[in-house]
């Protein structure tokens, strides 16, 4: 039986003339005039002959061709089509060879519509790009396990806890995306990695904020009328975030209302909802003072191009030896509302652009409390400028 199967020899194959030559057991070599050829296995499955290519000669040797032939003969003896079985195996291999970097970009593309500004700022993708892809990006996603993830994030797990948390979260989304594509991945890999890494020691550090009682003195000390001072004054008097303020365009203002586009609002659940900011008389006065510096419609233009940078106002406070940050004035405002007024929580949170409540509650609550906020922001402005006796007493400025 062995001789019947192995009719050819390695040396003999080399000297074969062009044509078809049998090695037995359905294994053939089709030689061509140049000395090369291809291996073919002929088998019968369900009464039908099938011809299966096993590779080119001499790249595939006689010995290798016999091993492949034996493997696929066993498949055909089980009543399975070896060609279809091999195709299925190839599809599985190709499906599971997707690299993490490819999956990450595909996951990002599919989520752009959910992200502010279609994710152009790069905040969603940057944790992956900086901390995951340099080490794991070239690995097939099906091969990534909890040990790989642990080793990748261990250096920053405690020292840069929030960054590591975001990177882990994004990676988990990528793995779930791969699973949705039909890839064979461990969907629990990130949770297992967290167990290996342990609880994070890092404690959240709040943005330093000026006590609300000290804000009026600081506000009034900014009297040089520079672009930076005017931007800080408007930031304080409106309690908005720095990004929409820096990109404030004059056509966003109509009367005493500034409408911030939805895509510029951080954390808004309804991406189609713009945010209206009531402008107090003091805010309108600051805007008028800033208009001569406007360029291309932007109220707070940069020195050479674009708008002022995110660090401009922070550096101003550094120069004044202040540890507090511009974003902290939102906390100052919120503390003032809580301690010095009886404003309903929903109104106070809306002033800050926060969205609170469940999906059902939000579906029924359509108001943005514009009139209530207008009165509150006017009161805040009068306190900042100490325009009435009550404000003077409240802030201890009677000295």
Automatic annotation (TrEMBL):
Residues 205-377 form the Tyr recombinase domain. GO terms for biological process: DNA integration; DNA recombination. PROSITE patterns: TYR_RECOMBINASE. Keywords: DNA integration, DNA recombination, DNA-binding. It comes from the Bacteria. GO terms for molecular function: DNA binding. InterPro entries: DNA_brk_join_enz, Integrase-like_cat_sf, Integrase_catalytic, Integrase_DNA-bd_sf, Integrase_DNA_bind_dom, Integrase_recombinase_N, Phage_int_M, Phage_Integrase. It holds the Pfam family Phage_int_M. Belongs to the 'phage' integrase family. This is Prophage integrase IntS. The lineage of its organism: Bacteria, Pseudomonadati, Pseudomonadota, Alphaproteobacteria, Rhodobacterales. The gene is intS.
């Amino acid at each position: 039986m062995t001789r019947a199967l192995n009719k050819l020899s390695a040396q003999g194959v080399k000297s074969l003339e062009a044509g078809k030559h049998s090695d037995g057991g359905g294994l053939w070599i089709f030689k061509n005039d140049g000395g090369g050829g291809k291996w073919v296995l002929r088998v019968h499955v369900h009464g039908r002959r099938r011809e299966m290519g096993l590779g080119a000669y001499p790249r595939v040797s006689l010995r290798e061709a016999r091993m492949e032939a034996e493997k696929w003969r066993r498949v055909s003896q089980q009543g399975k089509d070896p060609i279809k079985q091999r195709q299925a195996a190839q599809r599985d291999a190709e499906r599971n060879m997707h690299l993490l970097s490819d999956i990450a970009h595909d996951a990002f593309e599919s989520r752009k519509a959910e992200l502010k500004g279609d994710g152009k700022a790069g905040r969603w993708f940057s944790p992956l790009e900086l901390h995951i892809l340099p080490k794991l990006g070239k690995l097939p996603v099906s091969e990534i396990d909890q040990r790989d993830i642990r080793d990748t994030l261990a250096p920053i797990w405690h020292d840069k806890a929030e960054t590591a948390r975001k990177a882990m979260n994004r990676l988990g989304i990528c793995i779930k995306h791969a699973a949705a594509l039909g890839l064979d991945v461990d969907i629990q890999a990130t949770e297992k990695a967290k167990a290996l890494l342990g609880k994070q020691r890092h404690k959240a550090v709040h943005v330093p904020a000026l006590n609300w009682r000290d804000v009026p003195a600081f506000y009034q000390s900014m009297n040089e009328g520079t672009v930076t001072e005017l931007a800080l004054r408007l930031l304080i008097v409106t309690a908005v975030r720095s990004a929409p303020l820096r990109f404030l365009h004059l056509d966003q203002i109509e009367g005493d209302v500034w409408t911030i586009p939805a895509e510029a609002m951080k954390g808004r659940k309804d991406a189609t909802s713009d945010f209206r900011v009531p402008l107090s008389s003091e805010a309108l006065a600051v805007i008028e003072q800033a208009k001569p510096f406007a360029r291309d419609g932007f109220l707070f233009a940069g020195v050479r191009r674009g708008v002022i940078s995110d660090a401009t106002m922070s550096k101003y406070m550094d120069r004044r030896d202040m540890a507090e940050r511009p974003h902290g004035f939102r906390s100052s405002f919120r503390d003032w509302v809580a301690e010095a007024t009886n404003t309903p929580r929903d109104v106070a949170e809306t002033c800050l652009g926060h969205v609170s409540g469940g999906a059902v509650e939000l579906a029924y609550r359509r108001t943005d409390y514009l009139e209530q906020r207008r009165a509150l922001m006017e009161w805040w402005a009068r306190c900042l400028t100490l325009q009435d006796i009550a404000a003077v007493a409240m802030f201890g400025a009677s000295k």
